[in-house]
Amino acid sequence: MRHRFLAGSITHFKIIFAIIIVLSLPGTSFAGVNKKIACKISARLKIPKWYHEGLYFDGKNIWVNNGENGKTWVVDPSDGAVTREIEPAGTFTEAVTSKENGKYIVTDWDSKKIYTARIDNGRMEPENEVSVAPAHPAGAIWNGTSLFVMTWTRGPTGTRFHLLKMDDKFNILSSRAITNISEPSQLAWDGKNLWVSSWYTPRIYMIDEPTLEIRGTVRSPAKKTTGIVWAGKYLWVTGTYSDLYKMEFKK
After folding, report:
1. In which order are the strands placed within the sheet that holds 244-249?
2. What percent of the chain has pLDDT over 70?
3. pLDDT by residue (tens digit) across 113-122?
4. CATH number of the domain at 10-249, please?
5. Distance from C-alpha of 137 to C-alpha of 87, rounded to nearest angstrom
6. Residues 6+ apart with CB under 8 A from 145
7. Which of 41, 109, 128, 240 could form an S-S bond across to 92 if both were Cys, CB 3.0 to 4.6 Å?
8. What is this structure's pTM?
9. Which helix (H) or strand (E) holds 23?
10. Where are the chain's structural domains?
């Protein structure tokens, strides 16, 4: 059964009110240096064209999320073959990240919602949800203790970007306004650092999680970089209409 937060729920309104307040507050952007990180492309996999967004690694396969009414593809990293398709929870899937007990956290651009979902008969079935309107949620990553979500809030003076840190009940623990990364899109976690892709420039940023300082950058091989995910010692990367790239970091 699909469960939703009730429209009159006090908790639901508290969360929405907190999000509106947080997104309206001024903030400081990521500090640090843009030190170039040495790496090489060790594989390039041809994958079907669609509107590629976030990536997820399930321990064996790479999941490619597609916006614009697209499905999530389960891709074999050995040859790029799509072995399975998963129906979305909404209409524009941005990110999927695993939680625990077979549950997933999903962000949907169109609905402006974050879902907790399970996969049932090849479909993402939401169990609960929270709206982050007026913001659009983009990249998301659960690191085992906290949920990080990238948001875009469009307005008459331009688009504002924030990195939200939330607990497992979607309560906001902190927010950081981002002004020095052009159109930050998706997120990855390597066990220690956050990684942020820039859709506007071919850059991927390594961010120290405790301090949220930039520790370095990688030049992305994908045009309009979106999805990034760590799989062991490799970083997989894609872009809106790009192939899938396997990046190996030099020691």
Report:
1. 39-45, 244-249, 234-239, 225-231
2. 86
3. 999 999 999 9
4. 2.120.10.30
5. 19
6. none
7. 109
8. 0.87
9. helix 10-24
10. 10-249
